[in-house]
Records
---
Amino acid sequence: MDDVLKYSKVLNYFKEISKIPRESGNEAGISNYLVNMAKTEGWQVFQDESYNVLIKKPASEGYENAPVVLLQGHMDMVCEKSPGVVHDFQKDPIKLNIVDDFIYADGTTLGADNGIGMAMCLAVLKDDELEHPPLEVLFTTGEEKGMKGVQALDGNKFKSSILINLDSEGEGVFTAGCAGALRIALHLPLRKEKIYDKQSYRIIVCGLKGGHSGDDIDKGRGNANKILGRLLLDIKDYISLCSIKGGTKENVIPSEAEAAIASKNEDILKEKIDKWNEILKKEFLFSDPDAVIKLEKCCNINEAFNEDTKCKIIKAINMLPNGVNTKNHKINLVISSSNMAVIDTETDRAVIRFSIRSSIKSNIYDDLAERIRMIADILGFEYEEGSSYPGWEYSQNSYIRELCMKAYEEVTGEKAYAEAIHAGLECGYLMEKISNLDAVSFGPQLYDIHTPNEHVVISSIEKTYNLLCEVLKKIR
């Protein structure tokens, strides 16, 4: 593996980046690593209170009058791991595994989103032979948790008129627009009662693929929270509900969920779960063939939610919107969607968290958010809006988009494509903060981001980096 990594400028930096824990909210270490590198190399560097890092490098000879170009990626990564994997994302490095032309991690997310983009930026900065215009290279924090880093940026520090964002994951596809998003949380006080003479059980929904709540929302993959909610609705008359927990992050389709219940009707429970496993086999045959519901006995629990609380939680899970909401079938693009991402009852309140997305602002605030608000009001949940970020409107005329597409076709001999996506990028915020910014986003071929099966194509990394260098040479 080391032989593969050390002969590539980009992969060598990615290897170093992967040694530094960088879960969203824990970017101080990677931020300081970037600052120290910049100081060692003599680059002009700025670090703000949110740990965003901006590095500036003068133009190479002959490019002094070229437009200033902003290269940008984010430091943080989504941290997910497979069941049974022991890994502390606060201190353990990501272990890289090379399989043929792919890089995987060892049972965790890889962090190629957006570690590869970071590594490309560092390789460009380090290459003194590369011809390029004046560069502003930005590494942001908190992208995976509501884009908190880019929100805190001071736009006055930038002189760029061109933005190349390196946070896309489809080789030969140039992103030129994306959805905006809003995060929502619903809260319900938990009212409990004592229970007696009932056996306690864990119901576990697992084996689902999960995925990115923007990129993968249209793939028909099961949402573990919704599946568990459907089962609980079917068995609600035979159980006491003691707790429920599913999902980990708003931008991840939940692949696992579980509930603790108590019941005197074990035979009925087994019969119902057998029925629902047959339903899952039919409904998710192609998207999630390994989906399964398990029933396990556990130590008896002597307290459960009262009947009113139980019914409200189960109704909410089943009534609230999830999945694709609207779609433009002409261009095969999801316009708006909702992801029921997290359910938790570990404190004195039940919490249900959503990420809703749309490239049309009214779909977020006048449609999905309003429907969620009304259901919350009906069921007695408190409605709370969290972080949001703007969309990036597709421009009919873009110098940098056309330059990138032409360069790709010249370098590879393959056709390039431009698209808008349903996932979110920081370009919208950057275009708000830096006036008259012409933007494009591209990257190498990645698969299954935000899951423990995340992997990246090695040859695509090299091809994409060579493209980036060629594009920079052409900007005069």
---
Amino acid sequence: MKKVNYVNKSVLIMGIAKSGFAAAKLLKSMGANVTVNDRVEVANNPKAIELQEAGFTVVGGGHPLELLNGIDLIVKNPGIPYHNELLVEAEKRNIPIVTEVEIAGEISEAPFIAITGSNGKTTTTTLIGELLSGTSLNPIVAGNIGTVVCEVAADATPNQTLVTELSSFQLQGTIHFHPHISVLLNIYEAHLDYHGSKDAYAQAKARIFANQTAYDYAVYNADDDLVSSFAEASEATLIPFSTTKNLEHGVGILDGWVVFKEENIIKVADLSMKQNIENTLAAVAVAKLSGVSNEKIHSELTNFHGVKHRLQFVGEVSGRKFFNDSKATNSIATKKALDSFDEPVILLAGGLDRGNGFDDLIPYFQSKVKHLITFGQTAHKLKDTASMAGLNSVTVVDNVEKAVTTAYDLSETGDVVLLSPACASWDQFKTFEERGDIFIEAMHRL
């Protein structure tokens, strides 16, 4: 662990979720005076009770402003918005507000590979972890993907590498965070309820480049103009990737090959995950920059089938290929999924009605979707949108199980059956994972 002095610093941990719990314990172990705060009453929060029993000062039931008295630093849960009254007052008092990622960056002796983007960051992070596994880089995969970064950073050694998925919420709470390799996949309009505007959201994503130097690398999507503008303003050595351009100093596709700086790496035909080609190109860039051999890259890319619930290839039944993209909780993600296929698609979509429309799917209903099978609260909204697009092959069903059997009955050899709901799952399921698992089980029953 780097020698960062937190002794006798007064730190307020705001939000007792996984990240706040880990940050509280870490900072106290480093000598900080830690106060933990959550809007939930202590008696109703098992983690708060555990911290209280361990000797922490824990305040629940709201965010009283007097908590700011004498505070040197706030470490907040990424999901707490900055318009929270306590955070607004903290900014007026010039109290630094960070997420636990900033703490991780300060204490880690291991270098960071950091990945962000509106879509595909979990798949890319996981794939990079696989590509680096078994090499001298000894990767630790963490961040928004599940494991709290500061928890693993505390014990990371210089001969390890932290491969870290980061959200816009996490990145907005960084000041000095400095990855050796950064990856920015794409930027779409998202999380406007939190950030307030697409520009603010994009600026949060761009913080991944903020502290890089010429000795670092910025891997970025050259097919995304906004991403490119942020990357080109950074001081890092630029490594672009593109599915459409031949890039002399980056990663692209040429004559059926994935090419890194004009070196043939792997044939596109050999990729096991052709539907996620942008993620693959970004991961190849990181692997090559990290010294991974072409043999290792070929081995991993011919065997990697994606991350569960994220455009995951589930299996094939009578010539129909089934893909689980239950994580697609908005139409942007569903468009991305549909763009991945040249085959006719039987699309399974629907879920929680958040009041939005689906007009942006109209071009895809006209060009990509052979038949729409829809369910949940938004079923009739999606059916009406398909009708506007001229797609009359629509079936409304009660649930995902029925959608799978209906899709099989309506499909033909060579078709793709794609669960990509374009909606959150909470109308019929507890989580998108539950929805995806039911899809997988129904497919296996076929």
---
Amino acid sequence: MTGQVRGVQLARLLGQWHALPGRRRSPDYAALAGSVRGLLADGRLPLGVRLPAERELAEALRISRTTVTAAYRQLRETGHLASRRGAGSWTMLPGNHRVASTGLWTPLDDREMLDLGVAALAAPPQLLSAARAAAEDLPRYLSGAGYHPTGVIELREAVADAYTARGLPTSADQIMVTSGTQHALDLVLRLALTPGGTVLVESPTYPNALAALAGRRARISTHGLAADAGWEPDLLLGSLRQTRPKLAYLIPEFQNPTGHLMPASLRERVVAAAHAVGTDLIIDESFVDLSMDGTEVPPPVATYDRHSRVISIGGMSKPYWGGLRIGWVRASAPQVQRLAAVRVGVDMASPVLDQLVAVHLLAHAEAIVADRRVQLAVQRDALLGALAQQLPEWRVTVPRGGVTLWAELDGPVSSALARAAEEVGVRLAPGPRFGLDGTMERFLRLPFTLPAADLVEAVGRIAAVRYDLDRTGRQRWREPAVIA
């Protein structure tokens, strides 16, 4: 969505913006303005887009024009809207905002929060020793220019060896090192997708992948995941055959946000169907190392590929640390060379020192990942226990790996709950962030990456504000901080 948003489009994004009993005594214009601010904060409504005329939005929402006029006035007063007579109104953000590490917007005076918006762990203790060892290795690279478009050979070999150990023989020539998994996705899209090309994605899916696709002006089609079972094989394969997309972006290992694990039989069938219709598969393996409860992870999707249809992407962010911006692409050697040619126009190469740190971390991967699995299992169980005690009406499928729970709420209140939770120091990622056009208001992603005590405290606060949403008191409205 760029340029201008129509009334019906904005109405769809807003969803049930004033339908909660606890908000009835707030003026409708305040509720409307607060919902627009929420859309801006979490990235579903872009900056610099022209909003519909007051009369058009009033008709789309079936409310009085006076309410829309008052809401627009409040948005101008809070710095979220700029208007010029005869030309319309454009979205903006106040000057006291900055871009957060998530790429979205957060107030400069953001207080300490229990952040359940970011599904990532703190750095492992082994990171410091890996950084020291990498600094000792650095001198042998200093005599060169430092540009390695496909990555330093030690890291490419280490990543290739990890794939081979998973049963997928891989050489260093098939690996390209990137500045994180998101960067890997961006480069693949630049190479493989022309503007307007069709891409099939899961629903729900990773919101930053949707942002990358929007940046390439992709036409997105979706395959809906069942809350308890994940992929419906016949529906997924049918979607591939019917839409014949140029690309399909899938997360088969502990899918973000649902935590589902795709069975081996479906992986093989998806690759065969993709080849039959001419679709290339982008397989996001960000969570492949984070299995729990003794869960055996099926072979990589690329194991079943005989025609260079599968491009795998992964990285260090989830099992190691998001601050180490190291990712990779596994593809055929010719595809890697084409990606390197595309990359020259983007960022040339990844930092050498960061790559050397990654080499040393991967050398101790077995111990580091084992510790992460134990840590995550404890935190997951603490979160599940707190939810069962405090919010028993919510439905959650227990994931066998990854870092997130996908909770089905007791009503379509996800966005309202996220805004209310900000008031008590908890940041949430509401369900609509993971879908298209404001859907999934009955769902909420809850990562279990914080310490167990923090997760229990966060659930207690969430339960309190969930109760308050259904009370009939006057709600306080404030400028929301950003989640991602």
